[in-house]
Design a protein that fits this description.
By secondary structure, the chain is mainly α. The protein is built from 16 helices and no strands. Helix 3 runs antiparallel to helix 4, helix 4 runs antiparallel to helix 5 and helix 15 packs antiparallel against helix 16.
């Protein structure tokens, strides 16, 4: 019945909660799939919401990235049929998140342009504010990837205004992260570290910002030839969260910098053993591949380099940016 479908939708929303990168949650996926199957095509807005949530879950929790894009596109088309700006904005935002870090920059910008066109039609100021912040946070790194520094600066300044005027902790944490990214790119390591510390102070309670801080500090130390100082914390991070594949090359690099080539070679070999199939095609992909390629030059075979270069070729003509603007690589 429709009542049962509605109950399943609310249950799926509650169970799936906030996705965590690299942490599969089978009960949440089952709840979403069951709710989708129970929701008829005559309720397109509800189906669009559930399809978006499932795409989001598979892209983030399961690390499948653009493999979930077909679902995200379906959600967008179903939301168009519903002909309600809020549902379409939600579906576009979900598709944008699925596309985070993926190669098609221009297509991603098109998705965000459509989202921007809907802002004035959203039903409340809260909805407009949330989607505007999301739009800016997603679009800023895309400008850097295509070499458009003025475009990035405009979105950076707009997000800073929102952070100052609306006291949004997410906007404030992201602004600090981007301040760090720019300082790091300009070689101002002390400034970069201070900005990243601000980001961690503001957003560190949220796992994605905590992981971003770890990646940022590693990048600084690597540039300073001090990566060995982070070996203990890097190894502990992977031990506590083995699903975070992006940190495994970090572990190898810190081991090598600490003078333990045997451990570094072993850590690298574990990743190479599967032809790097364990490296997810998600927002962490470029960060992971970049550092794996560095290691492969030292430890790997020609086949290793061929596989890594083949995956990196998908990003040809772009600057590489880690995830949602942690750092430029």
């Amino acid at each position: 019945t429709l009542e049962d479908a509605e109950m399943l939708r609310h249950a799926a929303r509650a169970i799936s909660g906030f996705p965590k990168a690299g942490e599969p949650d089978p009960p949440a996926e089952r709840a979403l799939v069951t709710a989708i199957e129970a929701t008829p095509a005559t309720r397109p807005a509800a189906r669009a919401e559930l399809l978006s949530m499932l795409a989001y879950y598979r892209a983030i929790n399961e690390g499948r990235g653009m493999e979930a894009d077909a679902l995200a596109q379906e959600a967008v088309e179903v939301a168009r049929f519903a002909n309600q700006p809020f549902e379409l904005a939600e579906a576009l935002a979900a598709r944008s998140f699925v596309m985070t870090g993926a190669p098609p920059v221009e297509e991603h910008l098109t998705v965000l342009a459509e989202l921007e066109s809907l802002l004035d039609a959203l039903p409340s100021e809260i909805d407009r504010d949330r989607h505007e912040q999301y739009l800016l946070r997603q679009r800023g790194p895309l400008h850097i990837r295509r070499g458009d520094r003025p475009g990035f600066d405009r979105d950076h300044a707009a997000l800073r205004r929102i952070a100052d005027e609306r006291h949004s902790w997410v906007a404030t944490a992201t602004v600090s992260m981007w301040d760090g990214m720019i300082a790091l790119g300009e070689g101002r390591f002390d400034d970069a570290e201070a900005f990243y510390a601000e980001m961690a102070d503001i957003g560190g309670r949220e796992p994605n910002y905590a992981n971003s801080y770890m990646a940022a500090v590693f990048t600084i130390r690597h540039h300073q030839a001090r990566a060995g100082e982070l070996r203990e914390i890097a190894e502990a991070t992977v031990l506590d969260a083995p699903e975070l594949v992006a940190f495994r090359p970090v572990v190898a690099i810190t081991q090598l910098a600490d003078g333990d080539e045997r451990a570094a070679r072993s850590t690298y070999a574990d990743l190479a053993a599967t032809a790097f199939e364990t490296v997810p095609r998600d927002a962490t992909e470029t960060f992971t591949l970049f550092h794996l390629t560095d290691l492969a030059v030292r430890f790997g075979s020609d086949d290793d380099l061929d596989v890594l270069c083949s995956r990196l070729e998908r990003f040809a003509g772009q600057f590489l940016v880690a995830a949602w603007g942690i750092c430029a690589l």
